[in-house]
Amino acid sequence: MTDLADSPLVRRLADWDDDRLESLADEYDTPLYVMDLDRVTENYARFSAAFPDAHVMYAAKAHTGKAVLEAVLEAGGDIECAAWGELQRSIDAGADPNTLQYTAVNPPDHDLDYAVDLAAENPGLTITIGARDTLDRLAERDYDGRIAIRINPGIGTGHHEKVATGADAKFGIPYDEVPEVADRVRREFDLVGIHAHAGSGVLTDGLEDHCRAISRVGEMARRVGDDELEFVDVGGGYGVPYREDEEPLDLEKTADMVREAVGDLDATLKLEPGRYIVADAGLILSTVNTVKEAPDTTVVGIDASLATLIRPAMFGSYHPMRNVSAPDREPHPVTVGGPVCTSADVFAHDRPIARPEREDVIAIGNAGSYGYELASQFHSQPRPAEVAIEDGDSRVVRRRESLEDVTRVEREADATGDR
Ligand SMILES: Cc1ncc(COP(=O)(O)O)c(C=O)c1O
């Protein structure tokens, strides 16, 4: 059992040990992803403790590294997956396939085939569908197993319009069509749950919208008969403070509001947090390679880029940054960018940071979720290594890629004449 007494609600970048981070950069080189597995365990335990009667699944999409999945499983969590690769990797990490939930969003044939084959041997697996079409395709595959219906609550929430899935037609069965779809699922499959995910990155001030969406989920569950459902799944979306002055989510208040919004249910409440479990457990270490005085700003070039962490370029997201080599130097407003040839490859504009010099190590915080997961090899850059910290020790859990890794699939195609 994790002791939560010493576990803060939030882990700010300044709470990490600067010397330790510098020595990790020295030992493993940069850019480097660092993941504190003990913090992953704490976050899972804290979140579950706030929802004692609920079933908390970890949304693997936030970070699908094996070490993270193992830590979640070890902490007693189950896993929600969004693609066949996440299912396979969860199983590789030790998950019982009977406990997995696969959320099918416009699922490619390969994904459906994989899930159906898996369910044939593991009837506990649940497939969440968001389109009638997916039911047709499952029926064509002779699937008659467990189905949860993802509904479109018509209310989106979250830190950015591109993550406000609850109001996006792409996701879920249109609200008023759900009872009819539920009838069909009951006839042809095993209807076990109602599901929705309204959006991501919700902090305390966004809870009201989030709960309005959730109340629609509870309402629909009662409409289709919650006494015949196993669970009502209200998705993830619970945020972490990215800015130093933002307050962490008030978990007690969140749990109270979610419970109240969903209302009385005979079915078990399920939640699927991703970011909350892993965001502040991870950071990126990078090294300053360039300091340039431009007429309007000081440009600091680092070896991490949008290929390492795409959130700032994709969503305009703020990530805290800290000069861990010299945290006590006078703060100086700097523009921090990486080696990718686009103006989008900028982590911060005119941000006061302890004046960086060449070779300093800069830490980028809250990179544990949607960091490595969205990394690319843009500019033929091999992806960085990832190091896990556990019980105070560090170990490489994903080695640094080489240029050989980047070009392997091309060379193999050349060798087999497939190109
Ligand atoms: C269906 C579903 N569940 C859970 C999540 C996890 O969201 P978060 O990481 O914001 O908790 C997502 C995120 O996109 C999702 O689509």
From TrEMBL:
Gene Ontology molecular function: diaminopimelate decarboxylase activity; pyridoxal phosphate binding
CDD domains given in the database record: PLPDE_III_DapDC (cd06828)
Alphabetized UniProt keyword annotations: Amino-acid biosynthesis, Decarboxylase, Lyase, Lysine biosynthesis, Pyridoxal phosphate
Active site: 341
Cofactor(s) demanded: pyridoxal 5'-phosphate
Enzyme Commission numbers on file: 4.1.1.20
InterPro entries: Ala_racemase/Decarboxylase_C, DAP_deCOOHase_LysA, De-COase2_CS, De-COase2_N, De-COase2_pyr-phos_BS, Orn/DAP/Arg_de-COase, PLP-binding_barrel
Catalysed reactions listed for this entry: meso-2,6-diaminopimelate + H(+) = L-lysine + CO2
Residues annotated with N6-(pyridoxal phosphate)lysine modification: 61
SUPFAM superfamilies attached to this UniProt entry: Alanine racemase C-terminal domain-like (SSF50621), PLP-binding barrel (SSF51419)
Subunit structure: Homodimer.
Protein name as annotated: Diaminopimelate decarboxylase
Originating species: Natronoglomus mannanivorans
Lineage: Archaea, Methanobacteriati, Methanobacteriota, Stenosarchaea group, Halobacteria
